[in-house]
Amino acid sequence: MRNRIREQRTARGISQREVAAALGVSRQTVIAIENGRYSPSLPLAFRIAQFFGSTVDEMFDASEEVRT
Amino acid sequence: MIMTRHPRLRAPAVMAIGGSVIAAAVLIGQGWAAAVPVEVVTIAAAIGYYLLGGRGGDLGAIIGHQADERQESIRVRARALAAQVAGLAALAGYVIELARGSAVWPFELFVAVLAGSFLAGLVIYRAGGAGPANGPDSEHEERSHVVS
Asked: What b/e readout covers B45-65, taking b as 16+ CB neighbours within 10 angstroms?
């Protein structure tokens, strides 16, 4: 699932470690989500959206699959 | 109490207790000489597991019982794979022992426990799935379907 986490994170100058700490997940999980290798659960998706002051709809785009 | 405060101790403690039970069984059946190596290997494995649990990365988090949801899903899938392989191995053992004309009850017991726990899992975890069709929200759901 394509998402805008990396884009939002780099725009704010936040590290993956800081995002991970704020969301209560590991840095590896943040990396996996950013790369589209892992689709977060709904509660985590809401936490991500809340953290970036956005909505789940804006952060995630289910219609676009990441091409690896 | 200690386990909840120090989740990293959980897996090594289970391993140490399980290994000690096996060592006790070996002690009863075969004496000290056979039991001591089993206990030594158990303690070494428990220490190794504890050290692994302190490492960073997915493996450390999973073994140290500090996994997040992605790592937890990895653990669940790994356990499922282990159970499948154990089931297949038991089935293979059953067939081989059957052909040799040996006692097959240990394999029968293992396969029965595996099948029973699988069925129990279906019953238990089904409760976390869709609710009953005639629940309090069913009328609302039906209306929603009509509207949409």
From this structure: ebeebbebbeeeebebbbbbb
**Looking at residues B51-59, what average pLDDT do you find?**
84
Write the residue in B58, B61, B69 that is nearest to A44 by C-beta.
Answer: B69
A30: left (phi over 0), alpha (psi -120 to 50) or beta: alpha
- A8 in B contact zone (CB under 8 Å): no
Torsion of CA B46, B49, B53, B59, to 10 degrees: -160
Spell out which residues of chain A touch residue B55, defining contact as CB-CB under 8 Å: none
With H, G, I as helix, E, B as strand and everything else as coil, classify residue A59: helix
Provide the ipTM.
0.84
How many other CB atoms are found less than 10 A from the CB of residue B71? 21
pTM of the model: 0.73
Q: Are A40 and A7 in contact (CB under 8 A)?
A: no
Q: How far apart are CA B42 and CA B111, in angstroms?
A: 26
Interaxial angle between packed helices A5-12 and A16-23, expressed in degrees from 0 to 180 and rounded to the nearest 10: 110
Q: Give the separation between CA A68 and CA A7, rounded to whole angstroms.
A: 18
Question: What share of residues in chain B are helix, strand, coil (percent, to 5)?
Answer: 80, 0, 20
pLDDT per residue rounded down to tens, chain A (68 residues): 889 999 999 999 999 999 999 999 999 999 999 999 999 999 999 999 999 999 999 999 877 555 54
Q: Which of A21-35, B38-52, B116-130 has the least mean pLDDT?
A: B116-130
